[in-house]
Write a structure and sequence with these properties.
Length: 115
C-alpha cells in the first residue's frame, strides 16, 4: 500500500555481470593458440603496451618473438635469436592475418603450437 502523494517503486532483481576485460595481449595469445600454445612451447609471455613478447626454449633458430596488433587488425611479427645481450632478427613480417600466426611460428622455429 502506498501512502497518499507517494509513488510506488517497482523493485526488480537485475543480476549484475562483470564483463571480462579483454586486452590486446590476450587477443594476440588467442590468435597463437592460447593455453595450448603455452603448453606446447613452454613459453613465457610479457606485455609491453600493444605488443606481446613471447620467450620460449627448444628451438635452435630463435627464442623470442614480438607480436604487435596494428590498427587495421593485422599483426606485425618479429622472431629473433637472443644470446649474450645480442638480438639477431630471424624473421620479420608486417600485416599478417591471425590464422597464419601459428603456422608461421612453426615454420620458423620448428616448434608445434598444438597437438
Amino acid at each position: 500500500m502506498v501512502a497518499k502523494g507517494k509513488t510506488a517503486v517497482s523493485l526488480t532483481y537485475k543480476p549484475t555481470t562483470k564483463p571480462k576485460v579483454m586486452t590486446i595481449q590476450t587477443e594476440i595469445l588467442k590468435a597463437l593458440g592460447g593455453r595450448k600454445f603455452l603448453a606446447m612451447t613452454g613459453a613465457t609471455c610479457y606485455a609491453d603496451q600493444d605488443t606481446l613478447i613471447v620467450k620460449f626454449k627448444g628451438s635452435p633458430k630463435a627464442n623470442i618473438m614480438y607480436v604487435t596488433l596494428t590498427s587495421s587488425d593485422l599483426y606485425d611479427v618479429k622472431i629473433c635469436k637472443f644470446k649474450n645481450l645480442d638480438v639477431k632478427p630471424v624473421f620479420e613480417a608486417k600485416g599478417m592475418y591471425f590464422d597464419s600466426l601459428p603456422s608461421t611460428f612453426t615454420q620458423i622455429t620448428g616448434l608445434y603450437t598444438s597437438l
